[in-house]
Amino acid sequence: MEKINILGIIPLLAGLAGAVLLLVLVFLLASNEMRKRKKQWTDESGSENRTEYGTKTDMRFENTVKDVPDAGSGNNAEEEPPVTECLFSGTSDPAGTAASSSAPVTDLMPSGGTPPQMTSAISTGVVQGIGARRDQQDSFAVSDSGDAAFYGEKGILAVVADGMGGLANGRDVSELVVRICMEEFQAKGAENISDRLMEIAGTVNDSANRMLQRMPERSGSTMVLALVRQGVLGFLTVGDSRIYLMRGGRLICLNRPHIYEEVLALEAVNGQRSLESVHRDIQREGLTSFIGAGRLKYLDRSTDGIVLTDGDKILLATDGIFGTLTQQQMEQALAYPAQEAASRLGEGVEAAAKAAQDNYTALIMEYHG
User: Fold this and answer.
1) What's the pLDDT band for 13 if we cut at 50, 70, 90?
2) Chain center to CA of 290
3) Pick from 203, 198, 191: which is nearest to 155 by CA?
4) What is the pLDDT of residue 168?
5) CB neighbours (10 Å) of residue 126?
6) What is the 8-class DSSP label of residue 294?
7) What is the per-residue pLDDT for 185?
8) CB contact at 8 A, 152 and 209
9) What is the model's pLDDT at position 104?
10) What is the per-residue pLDDT for 324?
C-alpha cells in the first residue's frame, strides 16, 4: 500500500485555511458596512458603544452632543424634592387605566386636588388616553397661576412628555421630566423667556441622565415646553412631540421633529440619495434627539417669542394625537373653548379605533388678551 505524504498535504491545507480567512474577512467588512447606518448609543462614561432599538416603531437612537446648559451645579439628584404646586398633572396608572377622552380637568388631577382659579388671560384644557398600549408613557403638567403675583412675574408653564414606549422606564422618565420642569420653574432664573426655557431643559436632561445611569436599561422621553408670560409665548422642544399655534382658524406647527427622516431628507437635497428612499427607510421615524440620551444633539426653540392675540390657542401634543388625526380634524376640534377642544380631540382619536393606537395627550392653553 502506498504511503501518504503528510508533508505534501500541508501546503494544500494552508491554502484552504487562507481561503477561509479571506471569506471571513469579506463577511466582516460587509457586516461593518451595514452597521455604519445604525446609530450607536454611547454613555458619557466612555463605555463601549451599543445600538439600541425600541419604542415608536423601532426607533433609531443616536448619542447626542449639544450646547445645552449644564445644570449639574449643586442640585442633589438623590434627594426627593418637595411637591410642586401645579394646576393639574398626570399620567395614567401602571395598570393602564386611561383618562376618558371627554374627562374634565378635575378627573385628571392627583387625588384630593381641585384646580385653582386661572388668571383671566389663560384657560386650559387637557385630554389623555392610553390607546392600545399596555402602559401610559405620556406625562403632562401646567403650573398654578392662582398666585397673581407669581403669574405676573414668571407666567404660566405647560409641559408634555412622551416616554419611550419600547424601552424600560419610559413612564418613569416622562414623569421625571414634568416634575423637574415644574420644580425648576419655581426657582429663580433668567429673565429672558428663551434663556429660561434653556435653563429648564438643561436641568431636566441632566436629571434624567443621572437617573438613567442607575438603571440597567436605557430609556428616554420627548419634551415640549410652552411658557406664556405677559402675552408672549416661548417654547422649547426635544424629540418628535409637537407644539402648534391655532390662530384665525388655522393650525400652525411651530417646531420640527428630531427624527432620522430629517437627516435622510437633507441627504436627498444634497444628492446623496433619492427622494423615494427617504420615504422607504424603515427607520425614518426614529428619534435623533431626546431627553436622557446624554448630551442633547438637537432642540427647537423660539428666540424672540411670539406675541399672542386674543383667542390664540397653543396645543402641546404627543404623536398619538397628530399621528391619528388629520390637520382638518384637529382644526375643527380646536374651534371650541380649550377643554371642549381637548375633549373633541380625544373623542376623535377614540373614534379612529386604530388597532395600534399609541398613548395620546393633548394640552391646550387658550389666550384671552
Assistant:
1) low
2) 6
3) 191
4) 61
5) 32
6) B
7) 95
8) no
9) 32
10) 97
Cβ atoms of 292 and 135 within 8 Å: the answer is no
Q: Residue 14 pLDDT > 80, yes or no?
A: no
Opening angle at CA 277, ends 273 and 278, nearest 5 = 90
86 or 294, which is more confident?
294
What are the grid coordinates assigned to 260, written together?
Answer: 432620522
CB 341 within 8 A of CB 124: no
Q: What is the pLDDT of residues 231-242, one digit of tens each?
A: 999 999 999 999
Count CB-CB contacts under 10 A for residue 295. Answer: 16
Characterise 311 by phi-psi region: left (phi > 0), alpha (psi -120 to 50), beta (else).
left
Amino acid in the structure at residue 144: D
- In eight-state DSSP terms, residue 167 is S
Give the Cβ contact number of residue 113 at 10 Å: 14
Query: Where are any strands of DSSP class E within the chain?
Result: 53-54, 59-60, 86-90, 122-129, 138-143, 156-162, 223-229, 232-238, 242-247, 250-253, 300-301, 306-307, 313-317, 360-367
Concatenate the DSSP letters of all residues of 184-204 into one string.
Answer: HHHS---SSHHHHHHHHHHHH
Ramachandran category for residue 109: left, alpha or beta (phi over 0 → left; psi -120 to 50 → alpha): beta
Closest by CA to 361, choosing from 116, 168, 177, is 177
Q: Where are the alpha helices (DSSP H) in 241-337?
A: 260-269, 275-280, 319-322, 327-333
- Alpha-carbon span 39 to 52, nearest angstrom: 8
Q: What is the DSSP letter of 107?
A: G
| Rounded CA separation 252/315 (Å) | 10
Helix (H) or strand (E) holding 310: none
**What is the residue type of 107?**
D
> How confident is the model over 76-132, as pLDDT tens digits?
434 443 333 444 456 544 333 333 333 333 233 332 333 333 555 899 999 999 999
| CA distance from start to end of the chain | 108
Query: Can you read off the three cell numbers belonging to residue 365?
Result: 392653553
CB 277, CB 264: distance < 8 Å: yes
* Residue 139 · residue 362 · CB < 8 Å: no
